[in-house]
Amino acid sequence: MIYEIRTYGDQVLREDALKVEEINEEIVEIVENMVETMRDAGGVGLAAPQVGINKRIFVIDVEDGITRKVINPEFLEYSDEIVEHEEGCLSIPGVYKKVKRPARVKIKYTNEKGEEVVEEAEGLLSRAFQHENDHLNSTLFVDRISPVAKRMVSKKLQMLKKETLKRQK
Ligand SMILES: [Zn+2]
């Protein structure tokens, strides 16, 4: 099942997601639907709040042969080195801006089989882990861009918010 992707201005994107207490059939189904939704939208990552589900789950596919299904993630380490790279978001269509983030991360999470996974990541995968995890803490990448960049996209964001609120009526 393909979920509707919630867009900028939707309140669910600004709520902290809740920990998954038990990995049951419902959770497995949500994860599978999220993978389907991400593929359909052509994204490299999708977090549960983006489809209106207030749970600490995200999926990532950076085309390295592994589709990551991440439940209750926790960062164990961040590198001191910071890198800047352009980001976009399925919930903020048409907006792409540079964001500074730690180059490498070490992350721990539970997968859809209930197994604990610890991974070290760099490059696009590291960035995707951080971007998606932000969604679980009600943070969007546009919160992390420079003030100048923010001014450049403020009109576009206002417009998106208006469209989102109109659709919800
Ligand atoms: Zn996003």
From TrEMBL:
Source species, domain of life: Bacteria
One Gene Ontology biological process: translation
CDD domains for this protein: Pep_deformylase
GO molecular function, one term: metal ion binding
Family, per entry: Belongs to the polypeptide deformylase family.
Lineage of the species this protein comes from: Bacteria, Fusobacteriati, Fusobacteriota, Fusobacteriia, Fusobacteriales
EC number from the UniProt entry: 3.5.1.88
Enzyme class at the top of the EC tree: hydrolase
Species the sequence originates in: Propionigenium maris DSM 9537
Catalytic activity: N-terminal N-formyl-L-methionyl-[peptide] + H2O = N-terminal L-methionyl-[peptide] + formate
Stated name of the protein: Peptide deformylase
